[in-house]
Specification:
Largest sheet: none
Helix content: over 70%
Distance between the termini: 54 Å
Radius of gyration: 22 Å
Shape: rod-shaped
Oligomer: single chain
Strand content: under 5%
Number of strands: 0
Number of helices: 2
Length: 65
């Protein structure tokens, strides 16, 4: 996170927003990290679902007599 988002944000925001850019840099880096994590997690879930068998187990296997 520090190399991917925080360093670029801390270098760019102060020139745009002044001292407020320094204050908000950590928040913005955390938000960008969260967004990237959600995107990667959704893509991984889709990929893992494609590995799963296409049919579920028959219900009668779980039915007790």
């Amino acid at each position: 996170r520090q190399g991917i988002f925080f360093i670029p944000v801390i270098l760019i925001l102060p020139s745009i927003m002044g001292i407020s850019g320094v204050i908000y840099a950590q928040l913005i880096a955390d938000l960008l990290t969260t967004l990237l994590t959600v995107i990667l997690a959704v893509n991984l879930k889709k990929e893992m679902n494609s590995w799963a068998p296409k049919t579920a187990y028959p219900a009668e296997l779980f039915h007790e007599n």
